[in-house]
Each structure stands twice: as C-alpha cells, then as structure tokens.
Design brief:
Length: about 475
C-alpha cells in the first residue's frame, strides 16, 4: 500500500485514524501495531513474520545488553544483536548480489553455479533493521532505555508512516513520546497540511517529470546530448520530490498521531558543497551513518589519512545500503571522494563565499544521480557518454516524438519549485530570506496572516492533487526499492 493510492487515502487512513482516536490512551500502541501490520501485510503477508522476528530479537537482546551494560557479557550481547540484524539484512538484500558477482567473476551466471532461485527483497527492510540496530547501540551507550513495554517497542519499529521509506527513527527520540504525547486539533491540522504538501510533491511534480527520466535511461544507447541532460535533470528532480514528498507525508501522518519525527530534508539543492548537501539530504540516514558508523570507525580522531578513508568507507557502505548493485558502490565512491577532498582542502568551510559553488555542487550531485538511477554500470556510462556527445546532439530523433511540451513545461515548473521552496518558506515565516539560507534550519513561527494564506494554498493544492491522482496510473515511491 502506498500513500498516494486511493486505498490508502480513502480506506485505510480514515479507518485507522478513527480507530486510533477512539482507542484509550493505554491501548493506542496496540492500535498502531495492528494498523501498521495491516499496512505492511497489504504488500505481502509472509514477510510480516520477518518484521516481527526482527522486532522480537532486537527487544530481547536489548534487555540483555541493558542488564550487562559496560561488561564483557554486555558487549557480547551487543555483538550478537548487531550480527543478527546485519545477518537478516545481508541475506535478504545482498545474497543475490554476492552470488551474481561471484558468478560474473568466474565467467558464468547464477544458474551456472547451480543456483536457480532468487530471494525477494522485503520492502522497508533497510529502514526497520537500521532502527533496530540504533536501539541496540544506544542501549549499550546508555543513550536509550530498554525498559519499554514490548508493545511500545514493536509499535515503534512498525510505525507505518515511516516503515517503508523512512525517515530512519531512533527509539531514544521517541521513547518518551510513547509514554506521553499530546493530541490537538492544531497539531492534527498541521499534520494534514504537511501530508498534503508531500502528496502534491509526489503526484504533481515527481510523477510529472518521471517520463522524461525514463525516456532517457530506457534508451541510454541512443539518446543525444540534449535528451541525456534533460533525462538526468528530470531524475534529479523526480528523486527529490518523490523522496522528500514521502518524508513530508510521513512527518505529517506522525503529527496526526501526536508524534514529532525528525526532519529528513532541508532544501538540499541550495547546497554549496557536497558536505553541506549531506547535511540537507536524507538527514536521518546521514546522521545515522555519522553516529553509528563514522564515529565507530574512529571518525576524525586518528589522523587525516584515516579520516579521509573513513569518509570514503562510510559513503560506500551508505551506497550499498541503498541497494545491492555496483552502481551504488560507484555512487558512494563519488560522494565519499568529494567529502574527503573537501575536508582535505578546506573547501567545505569556504564554499559559502564562492559564487560558483552552488552550480558546481549541483553538477556534481547530478552526475552522481546518473549512476544512482542506472540499472547497471553499463547503462550509467552510456548516459555519461551521451551527455558528452557520443550520440550527437539529437541522437535517435524518433525519441523526441515522446517529449511533449507539457513534460518540458512541468519540468521547468519543478525546477522553479525546487529553487523557490526555501524562499517560500522564508516568506511564510515572515523571516528574512538571507537568515533562512544561512541557518539552514526550520523556519520561525508562522504569523496568523501567513497561516491563513498557507492554509488556503494547501487546500487548493490538495484538491488539485486528488483530481490528478484520480486520472493517473499507479506510481510507487522510488525509495520503496531500497
């Protein structure tokens, strides 16, 4: 089930919210868990068992870590918990990849090795496994308590607004909210507005530019310079509006249930360095990688060379987290290389004062997204070659018959919205634009006049989105595949 489907909007969500608000406080976690399991089982019932077993395993091991924290036995329990969670992720997400890579190395395929089966990737596994891992590590560090009711912990792991594609939540940030949180009409209304804005990003912008991206990548060997660049730019916009739209919807749904989730995007396409980009893009993942991987590897405490190596390694592993494909390894190397280079040269500290740093950063991000989108390394390099003119300016001219004025116009609108988003936020908050850009943080409290304008705008956009949704085909969120 996806948020942008009629079954979710007009069946699951209203029924769940009615049940949730009718449920007494002490039983609300039961309603959340049952609703979240129904939401997950809508995809496949059998993988619901894996979600439950992972939850139970992390909860029980967390109890043992808490009881033995600071001792060798506690460390052994932590190692068991980490190994168990990573084992689940490794088998279901990477076993096919390892088999295929080994087969290619010896000059055959999986069937040639006698492997005639494929493991299906459970949806959302990367997100709920990382949440379980962060719980175990936080308990060991003393940053989270392990005394929660199992029903609360299970509801946290399965919390349906973020179960499929994040943000990656941490139990230590929500444990108090499971014990006490407020519900109000104002919070519900804010959540509904945030949800509708996210839905509009997905339906009106991401899905609108997707055909241009698909056209270029599906015909990577034949596209010319112009269409190759158009396709790459379209995907750059599609991924942002698709994923940030999902995050907005998840945060909005959380608010409707009384939860406050972490922000996951903060205008990443105004970044002036790759370092800044990763402070603004998929914030919950970049913070997770920093706190649980980069710091564990030594961070910047073991000299410059080790720091650069750690940055590269973290980004490669972050790339692999997105999928079992060599394209993600190369994408991770690309970003890791820039992070290390910016750290070594001090560029990340000087970039804000350089006039050309914004277009340079966007170009670097765009080049990386090409490999991220490609189905394999070969397709990625075909797009790169086309962008450099290997197929001429026009390429296969028959492809241009599928490029409509409407699709180009919608892409221009998407570019404008991506550029205007932080400016609009600053205007609605009655805050100076320059201050917003410098802080890169949440806008100030919105005035009454601005609130009325925003409410009217959200209502109009919501109505337009629902009308558009009724006429378009099913379109899952891009991050579902990760």
């Amino acid at each position: 089930m996806v948020f942008s489907s009629e079954s979710f909007l007009f069946l699951f969500l209203p029924v769940f919210l009615a049940a949730y608000y009718l449920t007494p406080w002490k039983a609300k976690s039961y309603t959340i868990l049952v609703g979240s399991y129904i939401f997950y089982a809508w995809w496949r019932v059998d993988f619901l068992g894996l979600l439950f077993l992972t939850t139970g395993f992390a909860y029980l091991v967390g109890q043992r870590i808490a009881a033995n924290r600071g001792t060798a036995r506690g460390k052994a329990w932590l190692a068991l918990g980490v190994a168990g969670c990573l084992g689940v992720l490794g088998v279901f997400k990477y076993l096919n990849f390892f088999i295929d890579s080994f087969a290619a190395l010896v000059g055959t395929d999986a069937a040639g090795l006698g492997v005639h089966w494929r493991l299906l990737l459970p949806i959302g596994i990367s997100f709920y496994v990382f949440q379980a891992l962060s719980f175990l590590i936080d308990v060991w560090r003393g940053d989270a308590r392990a005394d929660a009711r199992f029903i609360d912990f299970a509801a946290f792991i399965a919390l349906f607004p973020q179960l499929i594609a994040g943000p990656i939540l941490r139990y230590k940030d929500l444990e108090d909210q499971f014990k006490e949180r407020s519900h109000s009409l104002e919070m519900f209304s804010d959540g509904m507005a945030r949800f509708l804005i996210g839905l509009a990003k997905k339906v009106l912008l991401a899905d609108a530019v997707a055909p241009l991206a698909n056209l270029a990548f599906d015909n990577s060997a034949d596209v010319g310079v112009t269409l190759a660049w158009l396709g790459a730019m379209a995907y750059m916009l599609q991924l942002y509006f698709d994923f940030s739209g999902y995050s907005d919807m998840a945060i909005g749904l959380g608010k409707m249930m009384g939860f406050t989730f972490v922000e996951n995007f903060r205008y990443p396409y105004i970044s002036r360095s790759i370092t800044e980009f990763w402070r603004r893009w998929h914030i919950s993942l970049s913070n997770w990688l920093r706190d649980y991987l980069y710091i564990s590897l030594g961070g910047n405490r073991k000299g410059s060379a080790r720091t650069y190596l750690n940055l590269m390694l973290v980004m490669v592993l972050g790339g692999l987290w997105h999928g079992a494909n060599w394209t993600f390894v190369l994408w991770g190397l690309w970003h890791g290389g820039f992070l290390a280079l910016e750290r070594a040269t001090g560029y990340d500290r000087r970039a804000s004062g350089l006039t050309w740093s914004l277009p340079w950063t966007l170009l670097c991000v765009l080049i990386g997204w090409v490999m991220f989108r490609a189905i394999d390394v070969g397709q990625g390099f075909e797009i790169y070659a086309a962008m450099l003119g290997a197929n001429g300016w026009a390429g296969d001219q028959a492809l241009w018959l599928d490029v409509t004025r409407e699709s180009v116009a919608l892409m221009i609108i998407a570019i404008f919205v991506a550029w205007a988003e932080p400016h609009i936020a600053g205007f609605l908050a009655d805050a100076p634009q320059a201050s917003l850009m410098q802080r890169g943080s949440e806008p100030a409290a919105i005035s009454t006049t601005s609130q009325l304008a925003l409410s009217s705008f959200v209502l109009a956009v919501g109505m337009l989105t629902v009308l558009k949704l009724a006429e378009q085909n099913f379109s899952p969120f891009l991050y579902f595949q990760f």
